[in-house]
């Protein structure tokens, strides 16, 4: 059986896979124009290079392993029609992303930007006044694996956490829950608003002028989910009007963010170039999900595979 990797992994990881699965013919670091696309039963991809043309050629394809959590760039409708099994690596981003979000929140609340700027000027000024997280409230849109982890960390600082999902169903490390429909009513109480929502038909354009206008003048907004959660011009107008006070953005409508975007030069915006999930352990953690799944697949126990994705729903 051929298993095709459309990206590079380290040599010791290749050796580990060959040792664990001697019955499998692994083809590493190939491109979509490789003839092996036509024979491979499994394709492992980051999800940006499997399009309709690849599917037409992939006559033997039974399973796509996506080494990412996002699925929006894949032809999911066609994949569903073909009955191809899809899994992803949902959950492996939670540690680096939650740590990054917490770092930005603490930096903002403790006025570290001002501290650094003073040092550059060799200025001794004790008038900087940061605030505490203790006793504050945070709204987390998308309290899944990543949202739950940032909720856990925030709770350790004494923050009361509110989760927001489609149904309002309870989620781990959330003190209270609201549904998408109740979001606008809850926002005026929030000191921090964080989105880690995926891109789906229900989340595209979810945040409107009403939502931003309902935020506190002192609120910090972070988007670490997807850039189509709102129209970027709406967020820019909201930040210019002072609600929210500031934003940390790791995702954007257009990536890379165009050089002429106003976001680059706004004093109350931190532009993070979609790097919050970067970690030296990324592939290692992806393989920790892939290997048990491959074992289950080979043993005819596909129902036991982790992180199965419904192509029709996109998650």
TrEMBL record:
Residue ranges of domain D-isomer specific 2-hydroxyacid dehydrogenase NAD-binding in the record: 102-276
Cross-referenced Pfam families: 2-Hacid_dh, 2-Hacid_dh_C
Protein name per its UniProtKB record: Phosphoglycerate dehydrogenase
Domain named D-isomer specific 2-hydroxyacid dehydrogenase catalytic: residues: 10-308
GO terms for MF: NAD binding; oxidoreductase activity, acting on the CH-OH group of donors, NAD or NADP as acceptor
UniProt keywords, alphabetically: NAD, Oxidoreductase
Native organism: Bhargavaea ginsengi
PANTHER family from the UniProt entry: 2-HACID_DH_C DOMAIN-CONTAINING PROTEIN (PTHR43333), D-ISOMER SPECIFIC 2-HYDROXYACID DEHYDROGENASE NAD-BINDING DOMAIN-CONTAINING PROTEIN (PTHR43333:SF1)
Family statement drawn from the similarity comment of this UniProt entry: Belongs to the D-isomer specific 2-hydroxyacid dehydrogenase family.
